[in-house]
């Protein structure tokens, strides 16, 4: 297990005012501490500036929840990776299941976004995961492999240090239902194994695979303890400083 990454995906929550309050609480909790694990927050676009201000001179990474696949131009309502970098983001989440489901993002589009973001200098958290139906039909590994394959064929192993994978079973996101630690470990090992078939062990040495899906203080320890789980992508529990910081504390106790 490498040092763990704890990332908070705020989804469509927390405008600048609420964001400031939450971030100040997180900051107060982290100030003066030397963290072994890594921490990242993913506010909505409109609160990225606030995050940049409040988290100034802290080691907390700031990221966006989505990005467009083109360079700046006539794409009303969209945001480019160069703009995210300028606004202070180092990371971006791509391929979240809510974007795949509600905004029709295909594997191909996700792959184009990932390639553009990485080429422009962002670090990508690539979300993959199966639906309940796919798991029941025992197709979960095939589905995840397809999601990975479409992105990886757009990248080279030199890009490995700009990539983090988040395994997020769709049936566990926002439902309160969590994958068992064994289910998480099994899929994470499968993903790591698949990656090693394509890229060298050396290139993959720093690549993290996060688990996401109703992670909270009560189940974080068991999930984060798994050998191939390198951190968590946390939705609901990242919206309260208390639960988010509690998960960070658990990661700190486990990080070496
Ligand atoms: C997510 O949105 O990435 C997520 C894992 O959400 P939750 O923790 O609420 O299930």
Question: Characteristics of this structure?
Answer:
43% helix, globular, 8-stranded parallel β-barrel, alpha/beta, 256 residues, 11 helices, TIM Barrel, binds phosphoenolpyruvate
Largest sheet: 8 strands, parallel, barrel
Please write the CATH class name.
Answer: Alpha Beta
Indicate the proportion of strand residues: 5-15%
| Helical stretch tally | 11
Whole-angstrom Rg: 17 Å
| Count of DSSP strands | 8
Helix-strand makeup class = alpha/beta
Which hetero compounds are present in the coordinates? phosphoenolpyruvate
Query: Quaternary arrangement of the chains shown?
Result: single chain
Order of helices and strands: EHEHEHEHHEHHEHHEHEH
Tell me the span between the first and last alpha carbons: 8 Å
Describe the structure.
This protein has 11 helices and 8 strands. It is an alpha/beta fold and 256 residues long. The protein has helices spanning 16-30, 48-54, 81-87, 97-102, 107-120, 132-136, 140-152, 181-198, 201-204, 217-224, 241-254, and strands at 5-9, 38-42, 61-64, 91-94, 123-128, 163-167, 209-212, 231-234. Strands 1-2-3-4-5-6-7-8 form an 8-stranded parallel beta barrel, surrounded by 7 helices. The model has no long low-confidence stretch (mean pLDDT 96). It is globular, with a radius of gyration of 17 Å. It has a single domain (5-255), classed as TIM Barrel (Alpha-Beta Barrel), CATH 3.20.20.70. The longest helix has 18 residues, at 181-198. Phosphoenolpyruvate (PEP) binds at residues 9, 11, 168, 173-174, 212-215, 233-237. The site of phosphoenolpyruvate has 14 residues, from strand 8.
